[in-house]
Amino acid sequence: MNRLHHPAGPLGSLVKCFWYWEGAPQTHTKERLMPNGEPAIIFNLRNDPIRIYDSGDTDRYSTFGHAVLSGAHTRSFVIDTAQQDRVVGIQFHPGGSFPFFRMPASEFENTSLPLAGLWPSTANDLREQLLAAPNLDVIFALMERCLLEQLLRPPELHPAVHYARALFCREPHATTVSRVMDKTGLSQRRFIEIFRNQIGITPKAFCRVRRFQRVLETVHRVRQIDWTEVALNCGYYDQPHFIHDFQAFSGFTPTAYHARATEHLNHVPIA
DNA sequence: TTAAGAGACATGCTAATCAG
DNA sequence: CTGATTAGCATGTCTCTTAA
């Protein structure tokens, strides 16, 4: 069973969705997650702690308790799916986790941290309540209320960051950092600092991740793919550059990714 | 024969650093 | 917080190898 919930009100601009997953254990035991520059919070409602594997060496892993904050990523990472058959999560918009934590979002770049360390008095309580919840509506309501209570800052991004994010998401291939920067009226120095502070990764890195995501969307559910055409349409200079970027982000060559891809374009089963 | 994938290298840009 | 500086990274261009 799989369900999404989209929040209204002030959370709407920060949270992309709340999601719930429950199902039989997967036949594969690991999944490689593609980077998309969006932070997330995940609760495992089973007893096993959450495991995240070293991106390069998938025999090494760290455990994170039952709830984890995953920061904005520019690299893929590997999770354990064997024990994750009942999981709820909060998928943020880029920069959406910023108002809920004391630290700048850049502290979470390419990392995951146990939520208990960040919300000491809240994380475990919330999980207990989620476990006791009678149905999904209550689960989503609990998470929504908890988030509202955890707001440490105004629930919006700096106007320059908001503007830049929108442009980078809409046309990652057709814009440059400096062009966007000029429009904001901030100095180069200041713009990069604020952007990284709130979104969690540098503007250029964000732009490249969004371009990569556009490729995944383009080839999603397409059988016969002309990779050169995809590369050019998505704004890559040529096929070699496209392949290089694709591997750096995903850990797969384009064809290897496509061979393994499922309906969840950011989750690729391995092993 | 064709397309995927890898790599070398020059040039310009970005991001981090440092001084004030 | 800002401006100047600069190392390192991304891009543009070309060439080469491998697999189908």
From TrEMBL:
It comes from Paracidobacterium acidisoli. Pfam families: DUF6597, HTH_18. GO terms for molecular function: DNA-binding transcription factor activity; sequence-specific DNA binding. The keyword Transcription applies. Gene3D superfamilies: Homeodomain-like (1.10.10.60). Residues 158-260 form the HTH araC/xylS-type domain. Keywords: DNA-binding, Transcription, Transcription regulation. This is AraC family transcriptional regulator. The keyword Transcription regulation applies.
